[in-house]
Amino acid sequence: MEKSPALVTWTSLAGFVLFWTVAAWISADPSVLPGPMAVADVIAREAASGKLWTHVSATLWRVIAAFMLAMTVGCCLGILLGLMPRVNRWLDPWVTVFLNLPALVIIVLCYLWIGLNEVAAIVAVALNKTAMVTVTVREGVRTLDRGVGEMARVYRMSALSRLRHVIWPQLGPFVATATRNGLAVIWKIVLVVEFLGRSNGVGFQIHLYFQLFDIATVLAYALTFTAVMLAIEYLLVQRWERATNAWRLA
After folding, report:
1. pLDDT digits (tens, 9 = 90+) for 112-124
2. What number of other Cβ atoms are within 10 A of residue 14's Cβ?
3. Distance between CA 195 and CA 164 in Å, rounded?
């Protein structure tokens, strides 16, 4: 009998905690690798003081803002480049440059040009992700069913109707992939942005406790935000991905 996905997920996570516990026991040095209970105590302490929620919410806001900006611009560019090969030939080198430009370079340049503020932080993160979204959506547009597109033209559907009822449903899996990869990449880049030039957020706290050589608190903040992103992945992204693929199974 096949086990439920939820049971497999929780069993896998329990295995990770067990591996961590054994590794901490073998090291026998909490200053090098604190065990799960020691990190849990730090999480409880930081949560009780309110600091944990303050910094996690600041990072989550930056992740959401940068993610929405990157997805909006990336999807629009991806559809444009996929539908218009001539425009794609002109802009493809630009996309390739941004795709390969190191995140650290973009972050530093945004801070130098815009300033050490929220706008620079969000723009830097969004620029790092937009090219990846553009490429993913562009490839999705290239795989569109031409027969369905021809039928839409025969019935003289408007451009907006074709986008809504013909193009967008077929792009669902590609947008879902860009969403999953985007969230995984963006929150890590946000931590670097906060590490370098913000006065709050999970990245700022990791920088602070890194200087104090407090590994337990570094792990506490990192794992807390990882748990938040896992919740978003399983409760929102995967459910939406199944919904976008439902029409294929109908």
Report:
1. 999 888 999 999 9
2. 10
3. 40
Tell me 68's DSSP state.
H
120, 111 Cβ separation under 8 angstroms: yes
For residue 70, the enclosing domain spans 35-40+48-249
Note the pLDDT tens digit of each residue in 127-164. 988 999 999 989 888 877 666 666 666 666 666 777 66
CATH number for the domain including 187?
1.10.3720.10
225 Cβ contact partners less than 8 Å away, ≥ 6 residues apart: 56, 59, 60, 187, 202
Residue numbers of the chain with a pLDDT score lower than 70: 1-5, 145-159, 163-165, 244-250
Closest CA to 217 of 36, 42, 53, 50: 42
Residue 68: inside a domain = yes
In a domain, 29, yes or no: no
The C-alpha atoms of residue 226 and residue 203 are separated, in whole angstroms, by: 12
Tokens 């992740």 belong to: 63
Tokens of 96: 């390739």
